[in-house]
Amino acid sequence: MYIRKNIAISETGFIFNPLTGDSFSVNETGLFVLRKLKAEENEETILKAFQEEFELDRNTAEIDLNDFLSMLKSYQLTAYEEA
Amino acid sequence: MKRRKITVGVTGLNNIDSPGPGIPVIRALKESREFDVRIIGLSYETLEPGIYMQELVDKVYQLPLPTAGTTVLKERLQYIHEAEKPDVIIPNFDAELHNFIKISQWMQEELNMATFLPSHDAFEERQKAELNKFGEKYGVRVPASHMISQVQELKKLEEEIDYPMVIKGRYYDAYIVSSLEQASSYFYKIVAKWGYPVIVQEFVNGTEVNVTALGNGKGTCIGAVPMRKLYITDKGKAWSGISLEDDKLMEISRNIIEKSQWRGGCELEFIKTRKEEYYLIEMNPRFPAWVYLANGCGQNHAEALVKMALGEEVKPFTQYRSGKMFIRYSYDMIVDISEFEKISTAGEK
Fold it and tell me: In B, which residues are within 8 Å of A18 by CB distance?
């Protein structure tokens, strides 16, 4: 999964999708994950970094990350690599 | 660069809750880098706000209503020509375009007043009632549409189109209906306001996205900017919107302008479905009221239209900025009764 190429992410966590015109605000945690996705890191690497950065157990980190990724998907902010 | 002085007549000064494109067109022209524009406002009603916007409109003349026909329109234009010698006229109402297209050659030859309008055929083929044929001819998805003149026909259409369906007037107004009773009620409402026929259209579920575009009439799309409405009034008008970056939508739009050899400004209204399919629901034959956004995105469509009307070659715009928003607002002007008196009694001010 990666962030669609035209999505703009600001330093303050403001996200603009120029394809749909939608805009969103994320908190520090969301911004951390988004930057990792933008850098095209894979989900396992992101999960580990997420766990370390916010001092979470693996189970909690996995649930929260998956929740967030589902939300990104539902807002058409992400795409999958073509097989 | 020294700007060339020209005089441009513009209609659509009704900057109200269902605004005409006149004031946005004028603002774009006033910001032209090539022209120093004197604006002649052309109005139909005495309370069109543009009549009183002295910083934008230099002089105003009332025009006869389109239903009066071309003979009285010609007389009025002759009068305006003698007083102001406008170089270009930009009509901005759907309902007046038929008359202007009809007399555009006369205007050019007799009054040296240029226009930049679609041909009669191009104007007719994109009429709402002809949308099915239009879609087929230019290879664009359109919702199934039927033109009806009797309320009984709604019952028959229930077999072909599921509810909800959309009931539309010939020029303006559209209502989404969920039952025969609702459909009949809006049928009469639209007939009373806009006359026959009434258009019944399949409802396509999705997000509305619109494009303001300009064609040179020779198969080239000079400019196009897509927008999504962010705030919609109860009349369905955009009160704020944002420019998009959507390559597929741009390709479809350019294709329509080029293949139909559209000449002049227009607005393409689409519904984008969840599957990212685009359905053309309307093609309006003039600039939309939000055309000033194109200027804000780096494409001055009004200026380009004036240049083409004057016979100059215009190269297509190659880029625009996405993420630019327009936010409309209302503003109370204080006007002395004497201003209203002038336009009401003399038909000019």
Answer: 244-246, 322-323
